[in-house]
TrEMBL record:
InterPro entries given in the database record: AKR, NAD(P)_OxRdtase_dom_sf, NADP_OxRdtase_dom
Signal peptide boundaries: none
Domain of life assignment: Archaea
Protein name: Aldo/keto reductase
GO cellular component: cytosol
Residue ranges occupied by any NADP-dependent oxidoreductase domain in the UniProt entry: 33-210
Organism: Halomicrobium mukohataei (strain ATCC 700874 / DSM 12286 / JCM 9738 / NCIMB 13541)
Length: 361
């Protein structure tokens, strides 16, 4: 797993970045730009491109790698594991994050996906049909524990640094909000036990809509309530503190709701998800930091003028690194060609607090 001594040594070996490039995550320090592994076809050729890109990123000053068991039908996890175990830096220098919640295929999409889910998960009792939403999403404790075991095998590591429950708001399509909170708490209890056993170091939730929509939205989940459920889970299993540490959510110039929508009850009233996370000392990892490449063609002129960077991609990454609470902005790096441009964004300072606020005035 990532360690304090190794990550700080990694930072010292990459001291040519701007002052706030490396940021705290627990007792470690991590790069404020991270590798995302969502995009790309499930092919051997794309595996090799990811392998080269991740290795280049680790050499260049990025020590955050994010994946999920369902990304590219488990191929992304396996490539990440290969590079982290055998690549250019020590395993202990790298924060490895993955997720469980969407039923994954294995290497390729089966001819009959429904039959695959039935034989692999329903018939074996890993998933109860009542817990399955859309035919492919589940956050029940037994399923998440099974997925965690598979992720450990795919990655080939002893400990996963940050394990997310993936898009829990999907469950709201079939269940009440109270039922989703209850199931999350039960799953958090399992994750707390696995943390005590050393299989994970921290856990959290990765979301798309849940934390950036108003409280009356169908996909809304309360971040404060989820934190309370994690604290309760830790108390139930008699852990001194909760391992709930990370939140993943989309944030970019066009999707800034996590900063602008005040829907989470804090000590002094409602707050945005990012402000609540900042005050609760949670680490936020932004997804869609360049809108899966869409922002590479340009930003609104008034925003671009406020941001440092040579390209629209670099300015977009620096915008995503700017708000309170953000530890790392995740960027898809499915090819070595992307790495140089993305890493170079870290040689510029992101916006300061007052300059960032001014964007929304």
């Amino acid at each position: 797993m990532a360690t304090q001594s190794a990550t700080w040594a990694y930072r010292d070996d990459h001291d040519d970045f701007a002052r706030t490039y490396f940021r705290r995550f627990g007792d470690c320090v991590v790069s404020s730009i991270g590798v995302g592994t969502y995009l790309g076809d499930p092919t051997d050729e794309q595996d090799e491109r990811y392998r080269e890109a991740i290795a280049d990123a680790l050499r260049s000053g990025i020590n955050v790698v994010d994946t999920a068991i369902n990304y590219r039908h488990q191929r992304s996890e396996r490539v990440v594991g290969d590079v982290v175990r055998t690549g250019p830096v020590d395993r202990e220098s790298v924060l490895v994050a993955t997720k469980g919640g969407f039923v994954p295929f294995d290497e390729d999409r089966p001819d009959d996906p429904g039959a695959y889910v039935g034989s692999e998960y329903l018939d074996t009792g890993i998933v109860d049909s009542d817990d399955l939403v859309r035919g492919h999403h589940c956050i029940a404790p037994a399923f998440i524990e099974d997925q965690l075991d598979r992720s450990l095998d795919n990655l080939g590591v002893d400990t996963i640094d940050l394990y997310y429950v993936h898009n829990p708001e999907t469950q709201l399509e079939a269940n009440s909000r109270a039922a989703v909170y209850d199931q999350l708490e039960a799953t958090f209890e399992r994750l707390e036990r696995r943390r005590a056993a050393g299989d994970i170091r921290h856990y959290g939730v990765a979301t798309w809509d849940a934390f950036r929509v108003p409280a009356d939205h169908d996909s809304y989940l309360s971040l404060p309530e989820i934190v309370r459920r994690a604290q309760s889970a830790a108390a139930t299993v008699e852990n001194e503190t909760t391992g709930f540490r990370g939140v993943q959510l989309p944030f970019n110039v066009q999707m800034a709701d996590a900063f602008t929508v005040e829907a989470h009850e804090g000590a002094e009233g409602t707050q945005s998800a990012l402000w609540f996370a900042h005050e609760a000392e949670l680490s936020v990892f932004t997804s869609a930091s360049i809108m899966q490449g869409e922002l590479s063609t340009g930003l609104p002129d008034d925003i671009a003028a406020r941001l440092d960077g040579d390209t629209s991609v670099q300015r977009s990454i620096n915008f995503a690194r700017s708000p309170p609470g953000v530890t790392s902005a995740l960027v898809g790096m499915g090819s070595p060609e992307h790495v140089v441009e993305n890493v170079a964004a870290g040689r510029y300072e992101p916006l300061g607090a007052s300059a960032f606020d001014a964007v929304f005035e």
